[in-house]
Amino acid sequence: MNISALPVPDADAIKHSAQLIALIRQEVVDAGGWVSFARYMELALYAPGLGYYSAGAQKFGVAGDFVTAPEMTPLFGQTLARQVMAVLTQTGGSILELGAGRGKLAAVMLEELQLANALPERYEILEVSAGLRSVQQQYLQSVLAPALYARVAWLDSLPEAFTGVVLANEVLDAVPVHLVRKEEAGWQELGVALNQEGNLMLASRPLVDAGLVSGIEVLALPEYYQTETSPAARALVASLAQCLQEGVLLFIDYGFPRAEYYHPQRHQGTLMCHYRHYAHQDPLLYPGLQDLTAHVDFSAVAEAGIGNGLHLLGYCTQAQFLINCGITELMSRVPAHDLMRYAPLASAAQKLLSPAEMGELFKVIALGRHVQPLSGFVRGDRSHTL
């Protein structure tokens, strides 16, 4: 889209972004004039007090930059709770949510599990942003009964050992990615440098770390093909796999299997920026004020889990997973003739399930240890595509 069509930040926001730009500029200088895009993305999203997820601006919902499934409707969390409940029945243990947003999913799931008399001992949240942790604590304390809130605990790092269910909804898409481009002379890596005026710009150099294109270089990609790769996402999955003693890792995000992710026609990659509900492709615009995301290579996720001793339990679309877990039954809690309540519920369900909305683009993948097959993949499993 035309960048000029974006809403203009106010003076305080511009000042905030300028502070982060100064930090990034100094890092570029200290690194000799170039930093990888992954390092830029890490700073833009997570620099303490300045990064998009580390600062206090509203991010979720109508007043923010995007709307996630838990923010859209409680149906999402209620349906997810059914699958989680089945795993906890097998394994015991707790729930660990990564990047819990505002805390909506945690609240809905705790209330749903309480209804079923299936509460875990603890609902743990690993949140790297101090600002978001504060938002979560305030929100959950305001909506949960004291006994439920007492089960919530925040972690500063991954536990050494964990049993239960690890949930990550729209987490992997915000893990920093490297940008690479195939050119006639070989692979180049794109990073951030400074132009003559001292402003941030994208700049390429010959690829130094051949491991970044491992698995990609064998594909028949055209010249000047640009894409992303995320060693950090693979490392996160590997770390989770190593600490999981018994249970399931459940990732929900937008993405593709490798063959589709690196399709020759997807020659500009999947990197996207989100600002005030507008999507565009300029990652250097308003650092600290906009979200930066890339689609997930689910083949890489599966390989990282399997390579660390987990079993692939299933991979399918979000729509298929939610239908398998009984979302339509949950909708029947509200009588269809009660239009004031049922109409908004049906509208939200349509967004979760429709191929034109979130139903097809968003996928669910589960990796586990010492657990039985999951109901969420009983029909429509696409594991063979990975």
Automatic annotation (TrEMBL):
**MF term (GO), any:** protein-arginine omega-N symmetric methyltransferase activity
Native organism is Methylobacillus flagellatus (strain ATCC 51484 / DSM 6875 / VKM B-1610 / KT)
Among InterPro entries, the record links this protein to:
NDUFAF7 (IPR003788), NDUFAF7_sf (IPR038375), SAM-dependent_MTases_sf (IPR029063)
Database matches in PANTHER family: PROTEIN ARGININE METHYLTRANSFERASE NDUFAF7, MITOCHONDRIAL
Tell me the organism's taxonomic lineage.
Answer: Bacteria, Pseudomonadati, Pseudomonadota, Betaproteobacteria, Nitrosomonadales
Would the keyword Methyltransferase be found if you checked this record's keyword annotation? yes
Cited SUPFAM superfamilies: S-adenosyl-L-methionine-dependent methyltransferases (SSF53335)
User: Which keywords are on file for this protein?
Assistant: Methyltransferase, Transferase
Q: Which GO terms describe its biological process?
A: methylation
Record's keyword annotation contains Transcription regulation? no
Q: What is this protein called?
A: Class I SAM-dependent methyltransferase
